[in-house]
Amino acid sequence: MKLNQRGLLIVISGPSGVGKGTVREALFEMEGHDLVYSTSMTTRPPREGEIDGKDYYFVSKEEFLERIKNDQFLEYAEFVGNYYGTPKDKIDAQLEQGKEVVLEIEVQGALQVREKVKDAVFIFIAPPNKEALFRRLLRRGTEDPETIDSRMKKAEREFPLAHKYDYIVVNDEVMNAADRIIAIIRAEHAKTERAIYKYREMLEVD
Amino acid sequence: MKLNQRGLLIVISGPSGVGKGTVREALFEMEGHDLVYSTSMTTRPPREGEIDGKDYYFVSKEEFLERIKNDQFLEYAEFVGNYYGTPKDKIDAQLEQGKEVVLEIEVQGALQVREKVKDAVFIFIAPPNKEALFRRLLRRGTEDPETIDSRMKKAEREFPLAHKYDYIVVNDEVMNAADRIIAIIRAEHAKTERAIYKYREMLEVD
Q1: Which of A9, A13, B39, B54 has CB atoms 3.0–4.6 Å from A120's, for a disulfide?
Q2: ipTM of this model?
Q3: Closest Cα in chain A, distance from residue B199 (Å)
Q4: Of residues A173, A169, A171, the one with CA closest to residue A181
């Protein structure tokens, strides 16, 4: 399989509470793309309305630890007693098939992927300002005060890590943010380092 | 003036006959951008319908040579007896004002700009195939056989230079090509190296 036919791995990440999940959902609702979502696995209990296998694969801590031992994750992270991870198995096959695979993961996990997958595209979702993010964390209301406090502290620590990403997309308005991600994906495909293979093929076909 | 407020210099270029001008026109007809076109200067006679100051500044060879002597061009090139160049004067002021300045220039000139303006964005417009380009050159019909032949040979020499650009945009359909350029501009603004200043400002404002 030639380099140019391999799909893009797109990593959407950002501080806790920035609305990564909402942006990712909006992205998948948009037309004119061919994206595949890689569902994460977690040991945290489902929030109301979350569906197993769609929002997350919800598993027990025992099962998660077993999978870590068997090196079944592309990345994983632990946060306030819960594990979050990206199962390896399907991703590589999907990329080989030329599909665009989207991960929506924590900052800690994204930095692990950065080390492993050199040609992935890393997008940091940023809040329009700090207040918006803290308001969001408070409003979520599904978590106890300590969890909220932990998330706020985590977000503070994650703010400066934006510079490790390829792109910063401000989540001022969800559809705008999703739209910018679509633009980034299109631009990435037009990048010379990716497009040159196809281009050369075209010239040789003559 | 801060780095983040400076506008982008966008260089649209590509082989002779690829339809750079048509793509550039389509780009400017699109909505939702804030682009400024930097009109080139040439010593070649206007083609039918071309307007002085809009399509090109049409000047005499003497005037052009005088301007070269006075270092008034960002780039210039000579081709089949005619000169083409980008007047320096306005561009820098427009970039300082935060405007996005678009140049539509020959490959030879684009490579000169590449040397001088490190953070410009270079887009190579490619034909969907060689035949399309040659057909286009023949159909233009405003030039004598020798000129057409020179242009074809020039295009052949320019094909391999695509790898010196940041992006390759295939001109399969003019509106598609223009649309891809808009996506590239949006993505370039979201690039961490550009967006980080604004992002840091946002965090400090707090």
Answers
A1: A9
A2: 0.84
A3: 8
A4: A169
Is CATH 3.40.50.300 what the domain over B3-38+98-205 is classified as, yes or no? yes
CA-nearest residue to B205 within chain A is A129
* pLDDT tens string A73-93: 999 988 888 999 999 988 988
Residue of B nearest to A195 (CA): B168
For residue A3, pLDDT over 50 is answered with no
| Count of Cβ atoms closer than 10 Å to residue A132 Cβ | 17
Angstrom distance (rounded) from CA A30 to CA B139: 39
How close, in Å, is residue B143 to chain A by CA atoms? 25
Question: How far apart are the CA of A101 and the nearest CA of chain B, in angstroms?
Answer: 19
Put simply, the chain B residues between 67 and 126 with a CB less than 8 A from any chain A CB are: 123-124, 126
List, for residues A15-24, the tens digit of each pLDDT value: 988 999 999 9
Burial B98-114 (b: 16+ CB within 10 A, else e): ebbbbbbbbbbbbbbbb
All structural domains of chain A with their residue ranges:
3-38+98-205
Q: Nearest Cα to A72, choosing from A94, A91, A88, A92?
A: A88
Structure tokens at A102: 């989207």
Torsions phi, psi for A188 (to 5 deg): -60, -35
Report how far residue A62's alpha carbon sits from residue A79's, in angstroms, rounded to the nearest whole number: 16
Q: Are the CB atoms for B11 and B122 separated by under 8 Å?
A: yes
CA angle A82, A84, A86 (to 5 degrees): 165
> Quick check: A188 contacting B, CB < 8 Å?
yes
Beta bridge partners of B179: none
